[in-house]
Design goal:
Blueprint (H helix, E strand, L loop, with lengths): L13 H14 L12 H8 L3 H13 L3 E4 L3 E4 L3 E4 L6 H7 L4 E12 L2 H7 L6 E11 L2 E11 L13 H7 L6 E10 L2 H7 L6 E10 L5 E10 L3 E4 L7
Parallel strand pairs: 3-10
Antiparallel strand pairs: 1-2, 4-5, 5-6, 6-9, 7-8, 8-9
Bound molecules: 2-acetamido-2-deoxy-6-O-phosphono-alpha-D-glucopyranose.
The site of 2-acetamido-2-deoxy-6-O-phosphono-alpha-D-glucopyranose (16G) has 15 residues, from helix 4, strand 6, helix 6, strand 8 and strand 9.
Length: 242
Amino acid sequence: PFQFKPDPAAASPLYMQLAHKLAQAIREGQYQADEALPSERVLSESLDLSRVTARKAIDRLVEQGLIVRKRGSGNYIAPKLEQPLSRLTSFSEELHQRGFKPSSRWLTRGFAMAAPDEQLSLGLTTGQRVARLERLRLADQVVMAYELSVLPEAVLPEPQKVDSSLYEHLARMGRAPVRALQHIRAINADSRLAGLLEVPVGQAVLFITRVGYLDLGQAVELTHSYCRSDYYDFVAEMRRDG
Ligand code: 16G
């Protein structure tokens, strides 16, 4: 169980000491990713502190991005996705690995005519249709990203059948990408994106474009991911030549 002994000689206020101790417990892995943290009431009662102190400590950790509040169900550890840039993986795989429950909240799942940039990326000719998948990506109940995926109709003839994981669906048909090219840029959220990602308008968001290919070089996926910069951290290992 979580232990906290206030230091009466410390210069920092009680709530800061508590926040510090809680942050340490989270970093040390005392709590599972999808497990609720003790509520403010439980914290204050078990540690014999005032409710205000407990609330201010939690507020501080929310500000620091370590904790998220979920309406009606309490406080949880914020999702953190340290995603290696050298391996081709899916959102679902990455989140499962970290003990979160990945899911998709669908906005669109249908067909459209390929736009010029989509034709170019996917190697299509004018007049060919594409499947369009538009969704929010969630870790437990926290929105981490908004994604728009475009695939040739021949690759994804039944977009309605994609469940939560696109790659799992493609793998079942032997069409999951084995190679991808990815660009990462920073943008500021406009009001629509800010609303979808539940961040303030103007917030910095990671805008990532991925084109995924099959073994023989056929492009199967063009995905634009808009990732919350507080939850994503892309990591690459580098070596100097020679
Ligand atoms: C990741 C990829 C995205 C891919 C998706 C498939 C990034 C920035 N984007 O979100 O390109 O389409 O995974 O995930 O990594 P799924 O199989 O869970 O649907």
